[in-house]
Structure formats: structure tokens, C-alpha cells
Give the backbone structure.
Amino acid sequence: MKKLFVFILFSLALNGQAQKGMFSKDPLINLENFDKDRVYWGYFLGFNSYDFKIDYKSVTQKDVLVETTTGFNVGLVGDLRLHEYINLRFEPGLYYTQRNLTFPNFVSELDASREVRSTYIHFPLLLKFTSLRTGNVRPFLVGGVSTTLNLGSNSKSKDDNLEQRFRVKQWTSNYELGFGVDFYFEYFKFSPSIRGVFGLKDELIRDNDPNSPWTSNIESMKTRAVLINFTFH
């Protein structure tokens, strides 16, 4: 379903622009003065795939297996032009995702498996570096920092994995890197992009038992994610 949606969206974009001569030598320039605005707004829809990077105290033990799933993103975009080729962007959004963890050395599936369902409120502050515009196309690079509030962290719960309760910290910080392309249509700008998110701090809340078979061997657990967003201005 995701692949079909992406294919249709890109096909419509490219077909519509091709009809107006996007790839011809002298294309009809759309929204010629759009990027001269000091501030402009937009919104995005997209998909995500969240993972965990796990470091261990003892490398002789088996690793925790992390199964990723495809989640959904939605949010707003505020863009401030700092320079002809540099913009400051704030992209607060809501991100739904799930990771399935399988812990080693358990016979019972109930003990070995944990579903980590997360609803993130994500606050990235990014610098967007754009290239010279060619016709109605303008590639860009983006990077910056972000902080994330996990509404499903279970951080305030006194129960732990012994009671089938997996816990992580409520707030996390990250750095982000990505790239995308601005397509200029007659009435709006469409910007597909892909971005990586890299957690900076350990997020795991250890079990009450210091010898817990679930958390005692974990040195750190940090978020890793790939975000695919379709932005409309």
C-alpha cells in the first residue's frame, strides 16, 4: 500500500510537470518569487521506520532482535529564509510507530516478546541547504537537531518487564540528516524528502531487578529512524 501511494504521488508530480515542460530547455517557470518570501508555512504527510541501536555489556550473550514496522507521520512546517540558499525550518509533527522486540534465552513467547508502541511528538529544528534552482526543480540537503516526547514511554509505571511492561524515557534528543527535492507547481510547492534520525542518549529504563534477564546486559538503547515526508507549501 505504501509503495503504491508513493508511486502514484511521484507519477502525478512528474507527469504534471512534464506536460508543462519541466525537463525541456525553456520550461514554464512556476512560483517564480515563492522562495523570496521571508517566512512561509506548510504541512507534511509521510511514513517512518523506527529501530533501536543497542549496545551490550557482554558481547558473549545473544542480541535482542528488533523487528521494525511502517508508521505514519503528520505535521506542520514553518520556514524562515536566512539566505538565498539557507533556510531555518521547524517541523513539529506526530509520529505513530511500533517496534517488536524479542529477548534471548526465554522459552515462553510471553516473556520473550515485547511490543513497543510509540506515539511521538517530534520537534526538529533544521537547516535546509538548497542548490541553484533549475526550471521547476531544486534539490536540497537538510540537517539539525530534534527533541522528542514519547507519549507511550511507560516511564511513570512502577511495573517492569516482569509484569510485561517495557519502559523507556519520556524525552529523547537526536540529530538528523537528509535530502530531498522541491518541485514547483502552478499553485503550490511539493517537496518529497528522506531523513535519518539518530538518538544521542540512552533511552532504556532498567528493570527494578539489577539482574533482570531483559535489561541487565544492555549498555545503551538509542533510537534510529528513517522518515519519508511529503511536504506541501
